[in-house]
Amino acid sequence: MRITRVAAVAAVAALAFTVAACGGDDGDDTGTGAGSKTFEAGTTMERLNKAQKIIIGTKFDQPGFGLKGLDNKPAGFDVEIGKIIAGELGIAADKVEYIETPSAVREEVLEQGKADIVVATYTINDKRKERIDFAGPYYVAGQHIMVRSDDSSITGPDSFKAGDKKVCSVQGSTPGDNIKKYLANPASPGAQLVLFDGYQKCVDALTNKQVDAVTTDNVILLGYVAKSEGKFKLAGEKFTEEPYGIGVKKGDTAFREFINATLEKIYADGRYAKAWQDTAGKFDSTVPQGPAVNRY
Question: Locate the Solute-binding protein family 3/N-terminal domain: which residues (predicted)?
Fold first, then answer.
């Protein structure tokens, strides 16, 4: 039964791309209008292409992945991945609308139709897959800890077990859940774990010495370290693996497979590497190898 299901999913994705190829695509994936690409009737791809608009949920407070700039627009690796997907749908970059999706509301915006996809340092896990589906992964991060540069007392997550250090993370995030097991009282962290709705508030709390550390994924913290003018550093080593996926509405198999095929395409043609180099690569120059997508 599973072989039949996987074959059917592959056929759906293949059909979508076959129809698109017959639509006269000239190879320009920046999105040149509805006439440049054609998709199977009734699919999300067709709906978005005809509308010539896509709403992408992303982060607005994470250097290198999704950070809102002075021009009031987000920029980063996740934003670039979103643009590429839009381009493959025949939608121009200026027709993409970005909405802020803090960790706690990512499933909600997809369920309520407020976003078409969510590309927001979004760790794939089984609990989330009960509510939404994931394409990807497109990147594998690892949880890390950031401290003030003059603090040598924290060397890794085990440093929190004594209970005398406060750590900050974000509500509804995987790092916020992961760090609990290292606290003095994992079942009831109390004041030792400070949770905000965004990481910039954690960074401010670290600056003001309201907390002793901030924990989230390594590449996000590298961005904050780079922007801190020497105020912050990373402590210890990565202690988890966090596969980032692209959230789509539950049950939209054809759209998920379209995005998976897009990811594999850009791994091969160099657009993935360029997206990294132009964004997160400014903090981590090692271009990651695109991970194998999970066609569940």
Answer: 53-280
Output the CA–CA distances (angstroms, integers) from residue 83 to 180, 188, 241, 286, in the order listed. Answer: 35, 41, 26, 22
Average pLDDT over residues 189-194: 95
The CB density around residue 10, as the number of other CB atoms within 10 Å, is 13
Mark whether 109 and 15 lie in a shared domain: yes
Nearest-angstrom CA–CA distance, 97 and 210: 36
pTM of the complete model: 0.84
CA-atom Rg of the chain in angstroms: 20
Helix intervals (H) in 34-74: 44-51
What stretches of the chain show up as alpha helix (H) in DSSP? 2-21, 44-51, 77-88, 106-111, 126-129, 174-178, 199-207, 218-227, 253-269, 271-278
Closest to 106 in 3D by CA, of 170, 193, 202, 179 = 170
Domain ranges, residue 173: 143-235
160 and 209: one domain?
A: yes
| Residue closest to 120 by CA, chosen among 53, 67, 179, 84 | 67
* 230 and 88 inside one domain: no
CB neighbour burial string for 45-75, b if at least 16 within 10 angstroms, e if fewer: bbebbeeeebbbbbbbbbbbbbbbeeeeebb
Cα separation of 134 and 296, whole Å?
9
257 and 127: one domain?
A: yes
The residue type at 292: A
- Please check whether residue 202 is in contact with residue 61, taking contact to mean a CB–CB distance below 8 angstroms: no
pLDDT tens-digit series, residues 217-247: 999 999 999 999 999 999 999 999 999 999 9
| 147 φ/ψ angles, rounded to the nearest 5 degrees | -135, 170
